[in-house]
Write a structure and sequence with these properties.
Length: 759
């Protein structure tokens, strides 16, 4: 029998991980079984499924000490809201590393009886680590904030915008692709030269029509979103993996959070320029007075009601020694909360506005909470603990912003609540609470409704971080695991299985008795995107009775079961413009994001490839005008115009001008579609998502000769320590890949599900 050990590096509130791993006491004679699976043939789109295991641990002196008597609500020590590093050892050799989460404590006769914990593989815990966070929590993206003025939009349309962050230059990090949220475009130098949507450089009214700055929205490289996820959660995706591959090099996400044009201006309720700093009024008793927050007995940090910094709360958590009743002890500020309440007034109660709360960290503004496109009273409360507030050495200014395109008058209330804990024998005890409220009343004239900074986290689509990652995994049939260097390796399933070793386990496997099953669990596998809202995609659905870019794979089996893989993104049909009455193809392809009612639409997040195209045909040059588009479909006022022979063209392929002979290296279609630019039908031979990432695996699984073998084995410690799910297994004269394995760790008894290699 092998000795199994469970070790934890406890995560402590306001203390981070302890310096060393500690051995937890296990239940006596508890046989521990661990199931490992990367991708089950019966659940082919499951990701982050390495392994997880629940343990019941005795409430021993050792475990009570490690968990800091967490069952006692008056003791604040072990943090069960944060995952602690952990590992499983077999005979004192590291077997698995991961995370532990304390789930609950079972009490008997008012005393702790056992602790229930879950041990996660590192990839499994990503879902819990990210929780319900949305992309607007990726504050690192605000390093790419940019201006919404006409000159900047034009530069982003023509060349792309470069940014340098921490001495690293990111080329074309932000672009303004030719995707319009409202206006349909044509290219015509004849009879339709006065058309408001005509982007031809024809002389007729070319200072009043064309691409206008407000028509466009920016897009950000998908690779930068991945980088922001690493930064936000302290992850390390292994370099050279899928996220560094050519498949996403020029893949972008359109920053389309709301219908129609972007709203970039607003009332800064603090921390803008000196002229915009707004004075708040504090009144009431001691604990409702702004001066109470500057009490010298309390840690540094204060709310500026008037004067320099008015409207800003300066938060800093710090340990401080004080003397109360003759005894010296240490106490600390344990978070608290910041609350902003907006109440519209004076006939503007129905007007739409957005409320955002910013924090300034190391000179960069981050949106830490928001309520977008709301009306009526809105309240936001922020926990002053963790995240941007986690570093006790930093002072973090916090301030709100109200934005409204139509203007809104409102009363605002800021309430600060703080908690303080006495530190005694490492266990903090609550000793003091304090709060203060300040008010400010605005007018419409306080609002800035045009121009301004494009804050990236304010413009990213409404999707959670984990759903975004899952979407990329579903599109490209990816898998993830953690290597020995604690790096998350992300690669396609094809590459994963190609990287393993071949092990002959014949002598450890009982071949006298085993089970053989079919691997045809489904008669049909459907791969598709979310429901499209744009007019061309809707027309495609109506005509073809399937979603654009989808594919149905039929196994030919007798089962009636169907399996659907649905990516949480929108898939758009882009349109190549023709020239005037000749209908000759131009060099311009664009996206039109309106619905069947010809109105601006909002759908799922849009991913696309962007190609920087140089226009060689002067008839195809794009007219760009610095003006504002009227709401009545009339020509705008004249403005400065520019003739553009270069632009960022959106596409579902990664090459600019594919031909019949040279097909794109990568496509965003699941199934084959006629190329929107070249109008080439590749007849199923394209490098579609299905062909590149799914075909070989599904064809093998659905092969009539393929079988699923279930064997029982007793694996020695040396095999258990080195066996990986990407390994190929030899049993007798046959070669298999691992579908799933379940191991009793003490004995090495293992149930293997092996997928035969069809010939």
């Amino acid at each position: 029998m092998q000795k199994i050990s469970l070790l934890i590096q406890p995560y402590l509130r306001n203390g981070g991980n302890s310096e060393k791993f500690e051995y937890l006491d296990l239940m006596e004679e508890d046989l521990i079984t661990l199931t490992q699976v990367i991708q089950d043939v019966r659940e082919i789109d499951k990701i982050f499924t390495d392994f997880s295991k629940t343990f019941n641990l005795p409430a021993s002196k050792t475990n009570n000490r490690i968990f800091r008597n967490w069952y006692n609500q008056d003791v604040v020590g072990f943090d069960n809201q944060t995952f602690s590093n952990a590992k499983i050892q077999l005979n004192h050799s590291d077997f698995k590393t991961g995370k532990i989460k304390l789930e609950n404590v079972v009490m008997k006769n008012n005393k702790p009886y056992l602790y229930k914990v879950t041990f996660f593989g590192n990839t499994v815990s990503l879902t819990d680590l990210m929780a319900t966070d949305k992309l607007d929590a990726l504050f690192w993206l605000n390093n790419f904030n940019t201006e919404s003025d006409a000159s900047n939009v034009k530069d982003g349309l023509v060349d792309g915008l470069d940014f340098t962050v921490d001495s690293v230059t990111y080329t074309d990090a932000i672009i303004f692709p030719l995707i319009t949220h409202t206006q349909k475009y044509i290219l015509d130098n004849t009879s339709q030269a006065d058309n408001i949507g005509n982007i031809s450089t024809s002389q007729t009214n070319n200072d009043k029509r064309g691409v206008l700055p407000e028509d466009l929205k920016p897009a950000i490289k998908v690779s930068l979103i991945i980088k922001a996820i690493e930064q936000r959660y302290g992850l390390n995706f292994k370099s050279g993996g899928f996220f560094d591959s050519s498949a996403i090099t020029n893949m972008y996400m359109w920053l389309h959070r709301n219908k129609g044009k972007m709203i970039t201006g607003g009332t800064w309720l603090g921390f803008a320029s000196d002229s915009n700093l707004l004075e708040y009024d504090c009144s009431g008793s001691a604990e409702n007075d702004c001066t109470f927050l500057t009490n010298p007995l309390e840690p540094s940090g204060f709310f500026a009601a008037t004067g320099s910094g008015a409207g800003i709360y300066f938060y800093k958590s710090i340990l401080r020694s004080i003397i109360i009743s003759g005894g010296a002890f240490t106490y600390l500020e344990q978070g608290g909360s910041y609350t902003i309440k907006i109440t519209p007034t004076s006939g503007t109660t129905s007007n739409v506005y957005s409320l955002k709360v910013y924090a300034l960290v190391n000179g960069i503004s981050y949106i830490i909470a928001s309520a977008l496109n709301v009306s009526g009273t809105k309240t936001i409360t922020i926990d002053l603990q963790g995240g941007v507030f986690a570093n006790p050495l930093l002072t973090v200014p916090v301030y709100p912003v109200v934005e409204s395109e139509n203007g809104v008058e409102f009363q605002s209330e800021i309430t600060i609540f703080r908690e303080y804990f006495y530190i005694n024998n490492f266990f903090p005890t609550l000793i003091l609470e304090s709060s203060a409220t300040a008010t400010f009343t605005s007018t419409v004239s306080n609002l800035v409704t045009t121009g301004g900074l494009i804050n990236i986290t304010s413009q990213v689509p409404e999707i959670s971080v984990i759903e975004f990652l899952k979407g990329l995994f579903k599109m490209h049939n990816l898998t993830a695991f953690v290597n020995n260097d604690n790096e998350i390796v992300v690669e396609s399933l094809n590459d994963f299985y190609a990287g393993g070793q071949v092990l002959d386990l014949t002598k450890y496997i009982n071949t006298d008795e085993h089970i053989i099953e079919s691997t045809l669990p489904f008669s049909e596998v459907k791969l598709e995107y979310s429901d499209a809202k744009t007019i061309l995609a809707q027309e495609f659905l109506n005509l073809n009775h399937r979603k654009f870019g989808s594919i149905d794979f039929y196994s030919g089996g007798n089962t009636t079961k169907k399996y659907k893989i649905k990516a949480p993104f929108e898939h758009m049909i882009f349109e190549r413009l023709t020239f005037g009455s000749t209908q000759q193809s131009t060099s311009v392809m664009y996206g039109l994001h309106i619905n069947e009612s010809l109105e601006p639409s909002i759908g799922a997040p849009l991913l696309f490839y962007a190609n920087n195209v140089t226009i060689t045909d002067e008839n195809s040059e794009i007219n760009f005008v610095e003006s504002i588009r009227p709401s009545d479909d009339s020509l705008p006022a004249s403005g400065t115009r520019h003739s553009l022979n270069k632009f960022w063209m959106p596409s579902n392929t990664d090459t600019t001008t594919p031909t019949t002979a040279i097909k794109p290296n990568h496509e965003l279609h699941f199934g084959s579609e006629i190329n929107a630019y070249s109008l080439t039908d590749y007849s199923g031979t394209t490098n579609s998502l299905f062909n590149l990432y799914y075909l070989s695996y599904i064809q093998r699984v659905f092969n009539v000769k393929t079988r699923l073998y279930k064997y029982k084995a007793v694996l020695p410690l040396g095999i258990l320590l080195k066996l990986s799910l990407d390994d190929k297994i030899i049993v007798g004269t046959n070669l298999y890949t691992i579908n799933k394995m379940t191991t009793k760790l003490q004995s090495g008894e293992t149930e293997l599900e092996l997928l035969s290699e069809a010939t």
